[in-house]
Design a protein that fits this description.
alpha+beta; 18 strands; single chain; two-stranded antiparallel ribbon
Amino acid sequence: MALAALALTGCIKGSDGVSEEYRRVQGGIMIYNSVTAMQNVAMQPANAGIRLAILLAEAEKQIAASETPDAPITADYLKNLTVKIYGATSDIKLQAMLFGDLTTIEKTSDGWKINYGGSQQQADGFILSGSLQVITGDADQLMDATGEASAWKVMMLEGFGVSSYSSYGSTTADFVMGTSDLQNPMANMTLLYYNGGGSYSISLAGIQAWFKGSEQFKSNWSSALTLTPGSDNGSLAISDTESDSGDEIKDFKVSGTASGDSFYATASELGSLRFSYRLTDGQYRRIIKSSSISSGYGAYAQIVSGTQKCSITSPAGDYSIETYPSPDVEYVWTLSGNYLSVSVKYNVFVYSN
């Protein structure tokens, strides 16, 4: 999920150019940025699994409407699959839009393997390296994975990593990710499955991530989210998430929670800070972003409505009370026409952009 930057308003500002209204909630903004960074890094395998499900659903739909409706879905077919979607001026290769054109996808005996080049920034700002294994079992489509027992398993293979450019844009934060093991399903495991009724479950168990060189501050992060696509029947095919006229995107809904040890150190540097995250009535919109890569476009999801609550759950002695007078912050997102606004509620103060 993409992070949104807050724009300063035209309020009275101090000598450092920061408004007093902003300064009052600055600790909350720092909490939000840290908690959502933890959630976003941990969600990268799940995001890849959902993107693969979108790609496979669109492939199945197009093959069913072709002259060879019984043809299998192959890696070559996925690589060359094209769609016309809102926000793009011409047909585009869906795999390249979802994963970048340096990423390869190969069929395996138990599902699919996604191989990242490690040098291409996704539209959501992250750079992925190494490989993910998506074990689909008997469920060729995510909609066929009904219930947790039939869930797709997204496995982080040894060497999988995540990088993100810093807010200054000149350096990267490099994260090492734990390796998944089917014999230890409570660590580094991501499950995806269909609930019925048009919604899907995303379950993260004990995701381990740490800043490169700081393995002593390792996360242990778990999350449970429910995703409902904007299609009428729960279809994940990208052509089903637009209006029939093709001039409007149908938003998707996400709600859920996350919590655990983060990859940030406590004030004493004797352990990891603990966080929690709650998303209520989240509504997300697919954003098509022009790219300098040869595919021409990338896609990411932007929250346009809903409430995010982020908290430090470690004892007060583990963090600076002076910097963070309250451990909780709430972001309320509202879309009015084409104008996206957010209100930050922190320590009895409210700041709106």
